[in-house]
Amino acid sequence: MYVRYGILKKHSKSPDRRPDGTGCVRRVTEAIWNRASGRTPLDWETRSAIALAAARGVAHIHSTGPTASHGNIKSSNVLLTKNYEARVSDHGLPTLVGPSFSPTRVSGYRAPEVTDIRRVSQKADVYSFGVLLLELLTGKAPTHAVVNEEGLDLPRWVQSVVREEWTAEVFDQELLRYQNVEEEMVQLLQLAIDCSAQHPDRRPAMSEVATRIDEIRRSSLGDRQVADSAEGDEPSL
């Protein structure tokens, strides 16, 4: 099962789709990491669109009930179509396969309070989504090891860098090429930090996360339109 535009869908078979039936051509993991063969790195617009679509998908899952959760949010479970439309996958798989099924989870995405991977919560989903956001923004793996050869998970590494006011060092170098979106990038970074807070009660609900990402994207679009208009108004010499 996967979630698209906030609607839960089942896989279907079609000759023009890949075997998983979603019509997707790759995973977010591949889009971030595989830059070989002339592939263009993801730009700000694409990354923020992926973040919004994924947030809406997870928020929809949470809206179906107070205990409803995905339980295995990670970049390899966010699929992309050839037009880079994002779909959250792997939801409902344990139900279809059976109670003995235990999906593969990457430790870097797991919330600190989760000691049993079969017992997850909406707040744990929010933490995992925060790590996904950080991965999109930094281009780094969720178990990125840095600083004095100490192994730090991605949220703690980002917080340590931001604390030292080296915020620019956090972002993927590819994103630093884009002008007029610095403020929006920092806003999305702050949201990711909020989502990956150590204490569950400090994390926002996924509905709020989706709303904030939408507002950030709208602000980004407005800033670009103003900048383009200003450039167009410059007198020619």
From TrEMBL:
InterPro entries: At_inactive_RLKs, Kinase-like_dom_sf, Prot_kinase_dom
Residue ranges of domain Protein kinase in the record: 1-221
GO molecular function, one term: protein kinase activity
One Pfam family, short name: Pkinase
Protein name: Protein kinase domain-containing protein
The organism of origin for this protein: Zea mays
Annotated gene: LOC100285980
